[in-house]
Amino acid sequence: MTIPVDMLEKQVVETLKTIYDPEIPVNIYDLGLIYKIVVSDNADLEVDMTLTAPNCPMADELLEMVNYKLKALPGVKSVTVKLVFEPAWDKSMLSDEAKLDMGLL
Length: 105
Fold this sequence. Notes:
The chain is built from three helices and three strands, in the order αββαβα. By secondary structure, the chain is α+β, with helices and mostly antiparallel strands. It has a single domain, classed as Fe-S cluster assembly (FSCA) (GMP Synthetase, Chain A, domain 3, 2-Layer Sandwich), CATH 3.30.300.130. It has a three-stranded mixed β-sheet, covered by helices on one side. It is globular and about 40 Å long.
């Protein structure tokens, strides 16, 4: 059974919101670490993400967790997670919810 692309994209976002940066108590989606999500018609996923700092000691673990959790979604055929650093992450990329959680609003 094939899941419609829009439903799968919603599931991807919901799943990314369950992954937290170990140093900041906010999920990686609301932190603004996810730059691009592409869901193909045949359920292949491509995700571009960044880190709050290029030398983040948890980089490998975060990438592995994103890959693992997205591959576990029903109907997903493949997952490609690409780490990018352009544009560089900054606090303006935080969602309003993240800003509230961090006391910035």
